[in-house]
Amino acid sequence: MATYTATINVDASPAIAFAYLSDPLNRAEWDPSVRSVVANGDHFDVVVGFYGKAIDATYSVSELDEPSRIVFEIGGRVKGRDVIEIVERDGGASITLDLDVSMKGAARLLDRGLQVAFAGIGDNIASELKAQLDRVGR
Prior knowledge:
Elements: E1 2-10, H1 14-21, H2 27-30, E2 34-40, E3 43-50, E4 53-65, E5 69-76, E6 78-89, E7 92-103, H3 111-136
Antiparallel strand pairs: 1-7, 2-3, 3-4, 4-5, 5-6, 6-7
């Protein structure tokens, strides 16, 4: 299993950050590894790029506690959980990302390498998320 945790401070208010982050269709804007997101009933079909390969995943919202917490469950060829916590701070919000993902089946042999790659992927996600929320928060 690969994990990544980071806290970023953004200019957007908690309400704006929550509205933006709770809509999975926005994910491709702030997660550089996401190639596409398509709504499909109560879940979202997501295609993630990993080392030049397309990996299909299914995201579903398992918890919404407005405006402070969002939890996504991830299934498909990968499994995982994204927990996003939002706290008000002076002039904006502080957002903690707690991301966990692992491969299924024989691909689990790649989990150790996934952890190394996931650190860089997570840093890119946090950086892009900050940029997007600073933009929408203005």
